Amino acid sequence: MSAGVIGVFFPSRIVREPAYLALKDLCIRGKHVLKSPRRGAVLLSLILMCYFEAVSRRETAFSILSDKLMRISATIITLNEEMRLARCLESIQGIADEIIVVDSESVDNTREIAESHGARVFCRQWTNYSDQKNFASRQASHDWILSLDADECLSSSLREALVALKKGNSLAEAYAFRRLAFYLGRWIYHSGWYPDYKTRLYLKEKAHWEGQFVHETLVVDGRISRIEADLLHYTCESVSAHARSVERYTTLAAQDLWTLGRRSTFPILLGSALGAFMKGYLLERGFLDGMQGCLIATFAGYYNFLKYAKLWELERKKPEDRRKLANRK
Question: What is the rounded CA–CA span in Å between residue 166 and residue 22?
Answer without folding.
Answer: 42
